Input
Amino acid sequence: MTLAITTAAIAQETEKPKNSEAETKQEAEGPGKNIGSIEIGTYFPLAFGNNFVNDGMDLKLGARLSFKVDTYKGIYIGPYFSFFNGNVTNRELLGNYYDTTNYTLGLVAGYEKHIDKFDLSIGIGVGASSYKNNRFEDTATAVWLNPEINYRFTNYLGVYFAPELRHDFMNIDTPAELEDTFKGVNYLNISFGLRISLGTAYKHL
Output
């Protein structure tokens, strides 16, 4: 999937316009159109605080994919997906299973500013999160805050770095004495990877 996306971006970068007077006039008259960006990269989950993930799991590397659509003067919105795995280290706390996989599918919105070859943004997101294992599945509502910095080494290709402060509101029925452990999970996640900028506006930044 990454290879296909990268190939498409390189084609966008290297494709030579036909000798058309209309296209030449369009480039001369305007700054082009910013469509948005696609990001795909690694995802390092870091749980913290008093909760069942931090107290009972060893989290593993995952992946993150987002598609930001530019709507109006730097404001963007788009779909978001991430996943990671975890091995159970405290079966007395969590029960008789060995590992889990977390999937989060949601929507992000925010503001992005272009400064030379850098793109700086701040966004918020909300989505549905699930913790699946071989015995059952727990669900949650995830909300997160996501600052980000991107560097474009060509008009269309670049790299991004994005810390993510996230909280999962768990849908788990637990005794009152265990609510602090099972009702919510705090994360400080780190993601970095490839960014593909879409649209002709990036030629003029």
Notes: Strands lie at 34-44, 47-48, 57-59, 62-72, 75-88, 99-115, 118-132, 137-152, 157-170, 184-199.
